[in-house]
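question for whoever is on the cluster today: can someone run the full assembly for these? two chains, 954 residues total. i dont have access anymore since they changed the login thing
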Amino acid sequence: MTDTFVVVGGDAAGMSAASKAKRDDPDLEVVVFEKGEWVSYGACGLPYYVKGEIQSLETLVSVTPEEFRDERDIDLRTGHDVVAIDPDEQTVTAESKSESDSDSGTVVQPYDHLLLAVGAEAVVPPIDGTDREGVYTLGSMSDGKELREYVARTRSGESLQQPDRGPACRYLEDCTGPVGIVGGGYIGIEMAEALAANGFEVTLFQRGDRVLKGFSEATSEAVADHLREEDVTLRLGAEVWELTGEESVEAVVTDDDRITVEMVLLGTGVRPRTGLAEDAGIELGPTGAVATDAYRETNLPDVYAAGDCAEAVHTVTGEPAYVPLALTANRHGRAVGQTVAGTPTEGGDIAGTAAVKAFDLEAARTGIIDHEEARAAGYEPVSETIDANSRAGYYPGGGTVTVTLTADRDSGRVLGASLVSEYGEGAVHRSHAIVGALEEETTVFELENYDLAYAPPFNTTWDPVLVAAKVLGGTLR
Amino acid sequence: MTDTFVVVGGDAAGMSAASKAKRDDPDLEVVVFEKGEWVSYGACGLPYYVKGEIQSLETLVSVTPEEFRDERDIDLRTGHDVVAIDPDEQTVTAESKSESDSDSGTVVQPYDHLLLAVGAEAVVPPIDGTDREGVYTLGSMSDGKELREYVARTRSGESLQQPDRGPACRYLEDCTGPVGIVGGGYIGIEMAEALAANGFEVTLFQRGDRVLKGFSEATSEAVADHLREEDVTLRLGAEVWELTGEESVEAVVTDDDRITVEMVLLGTGVRPRTGLAEDAGIELGPTGAVATDAYRETNLPDVYAAGDCAEAVHTVTGEPAYVPLALTANRHGRAVGQTVAGTPTEGGDIAGTAAVKAFDLEAARTGIIDHEEARAAGYEPVSETIDANSRAGYYPGGGTVTVTLTADRDSGRVLGASLVSEYGEGAVHRSHAIVGALEEETTVFELENYDLAYAPPFNTTWDPVLVAAKVLGGTLR
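^ ran it for u. tokens below:
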């Protein structure tokens, strides 16, 4: 008799696992339950869809439901909400939400192996007015659809009785907006770009004193300066108290001000979906996400968790961390698929690596940069920040790459880095060198001697990463 | 009494050593002899100077002789040709070539520590006619100056009685030229770009069957295709027999053809300058360059060699290799300076990493790609080549990154890689990830799990480097 592998959740982790398991073991029966209609989509592309650089939501889908069913022979059941797991009986119960009665109903599906890949949901801050019209989050394809519709409607003048205005509008006085964005993380910044490009006057509210708080202060400052150059109004250290208005949102009320807006986007982070797991007796870890071992197996045998609902071990601290990002979901999902198909596969730790484009800048971060966090992990962190040319000084074009590098004083071990440059000048791809250093527990003295590629159109003889290592190495010596 | 550190050669390795030694130990007396007038210049920028993207040779100089003398307190003596080393007496003999009699003469300079940093010289192939007018090499600043003058003179019509024609000329029928380039390495390809951009009709002669032979075949093919797109005529597998002409060169004669040219650039590699070392009893290594230990010390105590005249240990093979490139010269020069100033410093191995821009493409290579070379080093090489999007498939712009990754079958160790993409799409900076993997003896299975940065404007969820690791890992499993 063939085994059945049941996957709950049809996005990155779930579909990677399903595809890999079926490819490695074609005899395996693979059933995927997905609550919505969309599967295997690139949620990271949603801001660019809202911006208008991507023309259709379908483009974000890497593999269609039909392809999964017909070409990959996966029993994919969209519109099926899994409401319970019975680990003793090894079954899941799914409710079909189809509008046609014949398809609706409850399914009880036995499993031999189960993967929870239910993802995360946008956090809505506990303030009044978040349920008003005109308040959006950006976590799902339908969120993206609604936002794009809002942008198209407003830009075409339906709400404001103004003629169609293109991206150039933000340089004119009669701009669209104003709109508010709450939160200065990836989503907040990418959406500031998306909305400003469509002519909206954007105010970004950030509770802390800087945007991109997971990056270095130097990166945050460079991005903040650039946002201001792009006419985004930054309200740093602003606690949002309430979203007011009659029906639609009309103002963002902070501790000391009231700013008129026509729309608000909440970009205040995500939290793992854990209800289903908790109900089934699956343990959560210290981060509040589902705990797993190195093979993504939970405390229940043959029950795995991967992607945005699960935590993973941090490369530098060795402790559980919750960093819900696309690559981890893909990698860990794929590892679970491979494990279930018979080849136990770990899928690796996470280094908290992330990249973001902010208008004409690009930034990346990896590892541990924050000194408090590093000390909590038993390190004595030392950081240096350097500015270096992105190309040889004499080579046309290019700009500055700012690198913050953090290492442990005693061992010299590289702990983390944050980089920022103009878009196209390589801050993000340069972070690849540091990720390797984190994974391999490289010291800053070893990193300094990395034989990195050099030619005048690409860097200075010492790449900015090496300059940072050299300077930090000097400090540590 | 203070020690004296004598440096022979005032370019990357020499001036890095001099500067670092003096900075770390200001009491040290530092004397540098440089045969020519230029010091500390970026020879890698010469093709861009000839192209016209860099306006003056001075721009290529990172620190001027005056700055070395006045600000860094280094006794820099340009126009001084060191003709002998006496290791028993610990002296060097230099001949000053100044035209004013008072400055000319012979100097005998004692040393406590000596660094040979005399660099490499362009190889002139042993064929007839290389001494004709119109035959150039590109190794030194004066070579660059002559070539730029040739380009300016020809473009302005002095030699051809044609009006000034800009880069667009190569799309017209009455193009400048034709010119020949012998050698399809970095210099050959960069100069093809430089000359074509100035309206010359370029034919590139390559003895082997592909350009950039140190790169993977896939990279070579991509670059060759692109050169042809840019109207460079490639003559692969063409053995050049002779350069003929009355006074100036008029034709390149190959084994089966005779191609009319008005100018020839020889880009047939470089060889280490070793005469001075050999005369002094300094041993050469198996590569024919000066042999050193990990601290760049030669067989003579307190006599070091670094930069393009010396060999170094290869990261992957553990054997001596000769890869004369700028970063190594800087890094090893600096390490010698630090060692001489009292802190013994190794400066690290070399991975044979190199980058090149070829018109609108960029390419990088690192480690061991060639299977014969890998087998000679005791590995059983397996390679895979993949094409991947440089940005998310749905994100505007971008192109293809082609990655060739080589690993050892038994251990899975990553041995080398070759990458190519459009310029600006990150083949070169992505190679940084592989360099780390080589230095740390990472397996392809570990590389596959590197938590590299991802966002749609920068890569697919699995960066092309990870895709290559995944595919190669699949082959090895």
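summary bc i know u wont read the tokens: The domain at 4-36+61-119+271-340 of chain B is CATH 3.50.50.60 (FAD/NAD(P)-binding domain). Residues 158-174 of chain B have pLDDT under 50 and may be disordered.
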